[in-house]
Amino acid sequence: MPDPTFPSLRRRLIAGGISPRRVRRLLQELRDHYTELVLEQQRTGSPRPAEAASALLGTEESLAAQLLARRELLSWSRRWPWAVYALAPLLIFPTAFVATICLMVGLAHVLNGMRHSAPVAFLDVMRAIRYFDLYLMPVIVASGLAVLARRRGVSPVWAWLSIALFALLSSLTNISVTLQHIGAGAGVSSRPAILIPLLMKRWLPTAAAAAAIYTVVLHWALRRDREVPD
Questions:
Q1: Helix axes 204-227, 137-151, angle to 10 degrees
Q2: d(Cα 31, Cα 60) in Å, to the nearest integer?
């Protein structure tokens, strides 16, 4: 392993579930150790100090195996995927939904006051926030979790589960905006005549959009990996 920059080791470690930030630190430690080994070989009069230091340090394959065997180095999403991709959406979406409603209520007071001194498109602003909360935010978060799963080397099953679950949660909520009040609610109906159209109108587009983003990112990442030699 004559190259102290470890070109393929970084990809192996990230694909194995170690976060990029921790990988950078580990590679820096390996570079420092490699430099120390080279200096030590020079002091001992080795005719080829760099090659001797590489032999002592080990191949990138052996280093990757040693580091990936240390479970404490793996990211949370790799060690506990159920918590990140199944439990987290159950916490993230309700929190974001409630926070958005609070923001809309607070902003409504401000905009109502501004309408007396300056023209403010109150309904346009509120409807834009409503649209983001009900349609854009679920797509962004769901696709983000799925991409994170890919970057951490987590099984694609968890990526698709996070998309389906987050899209489902978002389809069960609604926000109404009028000049007089802002209303919000969440719930599910057991009546197929109501539930099925709701899922087709809300769940399916959200899941499809998040899945499309995830698929594009996945395709781009796989293409990049094929183009970059180990």
A1: 30
A2: 12
